[in-house]
Structure formats: C-alpha cells, structure tokens
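Section 4.2 – Deliverable D4.2 (structural model, holo form)

The reporting period included a commitment to supply a predicted holo structure for the target in complex with heme C. Inputs used:
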Amino acid sequence: MSMRRKYLALAIGICLFSGGASAQSRIDHFGFGRDATADEMARYFAIPPSGAGLPPGSGTAKAGAAIFANTCAACHGDKLQGNPAKGIGGDRLIGGRGTLASKSPVKTVESYWPYSTTLFDYIKRAMPFNAPGSLKDDDVYALVAYILSEAKIIKPNETMDAKTLPKVEMPNRDGFVPDPRPELQLYR
Ligand code: HEC
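Output (structure tokens):
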C-alpha cells in the first residue's frame, strides 16, 4: 500500500472508529481501518513530489501567458510580481532566488518551492482563488509552463506534461533540511 493510500485508509479508519462502527482490522499498527475503495480513491486528487498521478494533457508557456493574463494577473500581477496593493493578497510568484537565508527572504515559487509537480497540484486544486477547480488540465500544464518559464527554470518553448514536469529541477530542491520527529515511526 502506498503512503497516500495508507493515509486515506487511516483517515477513513478514524471516521469509522469514532462513529462506533465495527471496522475491519487492516492497518496492523492501529488494529482498525480498511483499505480505501477504488471509488473513494477516484474522488481523491493529490500529486506527490514524484508526479505520480499527473493526468494526461500538456501545455506551453505561450498558452499559459494568455490564460494567466485573463485568470490570474488581477491578483498575481501582470509580471507575476504579486499584488498586495489591492488587498487581495496574490503572492509574488517569481524572483527572490538566493534570498531565503538573507535578512529579507523573498519566498516565491522560483525561490522556495522544492518540487515542480506540486505546482500542478496546487494550481489545479486551489487556483484561481475565486474559482478553484475550474481549470482544465491542459490549462494547468500551460500555467505551470508559463510560471516556470518566467522564472527561467525551463526554456520558453518547453512543453509541460506528465513526463516532462517531474524532470524539472527546482532551484531550492535541496534547500529543505529533513527533521524527523520521533512519532514518525507510527506512520511506517
Ligand atoms: C482572487 C485572487 C486570486 C486569483 C484570481 C488567483 N490567485 Fe493565486 N493566490 C491568491 C492568494 C490569496 C494566494 C495565497 C493563498 C494561501 O496562501 O492560502 C494565492 C497563491 C497562489 C500560488 C502559491 C504561491 C506560493 O508561493 O505559495 C500560486 C502558484 C498561485 N496562486 C497561482 C495562481 C494561478 C496560476 C492563478 C490563475 C489561474 C491564480 N493563482 C489566480 C489569489 C489569487
């Protein structure tokens, strides 16, 4: 069972348990819970760092630029510089590389995010802020290509899809320090 399935199964297990239903004992460590069904898994969308589960489709920075101008720029700025002035809080998305350890860190997709794949995941599920879930997969790939290209992480003509996106290495890929906690052993 993958970690993802295990976490979901665990969450369902907890629901069953607190509801007082008798749950099948499938998760050895806790002695309760059950495997998630295929139906339940079909409703669950989350792309892990590896990119597993990235959907079919593709997009380029050129296509992404047009979508961004219409759908994102009002909040994130026409040059991806962010838009705090209007009070809608759209973050700056590019720039700030190398500033994280300085006195004025600038956290952006370019400077901070360790994985390119989770950018697809985040935009698909959370953006645009006022209509999350409204973008087609091709649009999301295009927006990801546009942001990565403006950040000079990929070339302007590169196509992003389920094969190419996981290969993109982010500038801050090795900037995170593992900090294992004792309770981690509970989830193995
Ligand atoms: C109505 C304003 C609004 C619109 C429109 C909008 N965003 Fe956002 N965006 C936000 C806000 C607010 C956040 C911060 C959300 C949070 O921290 O929970 C955010 C966060 C993000 C982030 C994460 C930035 C980071 O470093 O954590 C990305 C990437 C992003 N938006 C991309 C997009 C894209 C692509 C579009 C167009 C499809 C879009 N946004 C449209 C307001 C907006």
